TrEMBL record, chain A:
It comes from the Archaea. Residues 1-68 are annotated as: Disordered. Residues 21-39 have a biased composition (Low complexity). Residues 9-20 have a biased composition (Acidic residues). This is Uncharacterized protein. InterPro entries: DUF7970.
From TrEMBL, chain B:
This is Chromosome partitioning protein ParA. It comes from Halococcoides cellulosivorans. CDD domains: ParAB_family. SUPFAM superfamilies: P-loop containing nucleoside triphosphate hydrolases. InterPro entries: AAA_dom, DNA_Partitioning_ATPase, P-loop_NTPase. Residues 6-182 form the AAA domain. Pfam families: AAA_31.
Amino acid sequence: MKQGSTDDPFADDPEDEDSDQSSSDTEPVVNTSDSLDSPDSPPSPDELTSTSQRQSLPYIHSRDGVKDGRIQRPIFLREHIEEGIDDLVDQMEDEFGEDVYKTDVTEAAMAVAQEHPDLVSQTLDEWGYGWD
Amino acid sequence: MLAYTVYSEAGGVGKTTLAANLAKAEVRQGRDVLVVDLDTQEASLSHLLDVGDDRNNDQADSLLRHMIDRPRGDFHDLIKTSEGIDVVPSHNILEYASKHLRRREEEAADFGESWNPNKQLLRVLREAGVHEQYDTLIVDPPATADIKLHNAIHATRHLVIPFEPSGKGYESVQGLGQLVSGLEDSLGIEVGVLAVVPNRYKGMNDQDRFLEELRNDGWKLPIRLRERSSLFEGCWAEQCSAYRYIDEYRDREREHELDTLQKLDDLAEHIRNVQVVEA
C-alpha cells in the first residue's frame, strides 16, 4: 500500500459492444465487466494467463489493472522521445475515443517495433549505427 | 469515478461517521455520490443516514444476493437516498457473506469455472454501470478484516484511513499496511492511500509525536479532526450528517463546529485532488 493514487478498476472498460450477457434477469446498464462471460481470474499471478477462458476476452478486458502481469522496468529515454509518448497517447485516445493507458501505448509501441525490425534499423542507422 | 474505502484496523475511530460526512461533503460540491454499506453492526452508516429499515427483512433483495448471482431485482432498486446521498444499505445477511460467497465459489468450481469470492463487489458495481452514473463511490466495510473488506478494497483500490493519534492507533496503521500488502499480492492489485485522518486530536504533545511518525513514514495527513463528541453524538441521535445537524438542530452556530465542517470539506477536496499517478 502506498501513498497516493493507483489503478482505477472501473476505467478499463470497453466501449459498448454486444457480448453475451451472463444469465441474470436484471438488465445491466453497461454490458462490460471482466467477468461477464469469462470467470474471474485466479488470484495468483503465475496462473494469470493459464486459463483458457481468460483468452476469450481481449487483453485489456481480461486483466484487473494496467499493472497486472507486468513488471516495472526502468528505461532510459531522452526528453523529446518521452514527450513523444504523451503525444502518441493523445493520438490514440482521439482515435479510440476513450482513455488509453500510457503503459499500454508504450508496450504496444515496443510490440510494433518487434514486428517491424526494418523500421527500427532505419532509426538506428540515423542515430549512427553501422558507420565503418 | 473517485472510489475509496474508509477503513481502520482499530475500532471506534469514527470510520462510519467520517464516511457519511465525506459523502455529504461530496454532495455539497454537486457530485453524484454512492455509498455502499457493508457493515452489519447496528450502528452502521445505514442507521446513521436513516436508510436501514430493510436490514432485517429476509424478503428484501440485498447486495449480497447480487454478489452471489442470486439477485431478486435490479441493482438500482437497492439504492436509498438520504440528504442527497445514494446508499446501498447494509442487510443482516451480510453477516454470512463469507459462507455464501465460498459456497458460490465451490459451486462454480464444480462446473469447472473459477470464481473469486473477493472480486464480486467490483463485478456487481461494474455490471450496474455505477462508474457511469456516479462521480464518487465510498465503501464503508465492517471493522473486522474479512471477505467484505477484501471486496471493498478490491473494488475501490484506494483507502482513507481514520486513526486515533496514540500508540494503538499508530500500530493499527502499520498493521493495516501488512494486511493490504497481503491482499495486493493475492488479488494482483495495487492499493493507494488517499489520506490518513487523525481523529479526536486534542493537541497533546505525544499525539503530535505519532502524527510526526506517520508523516515520516510517508503518509499524507491533510487535516486533523478534533474531539467533537457532542456534534457527532448528535448526528447519531438525529440520524443525519454533521452538516444537517448543525443546520437543523443547533440553536446557534458554534465556531469550533463550523471549523470541523470546513475541515471535512477540505479533506474531501484533498482526496479529490490527490495527484493521479500516471500508470
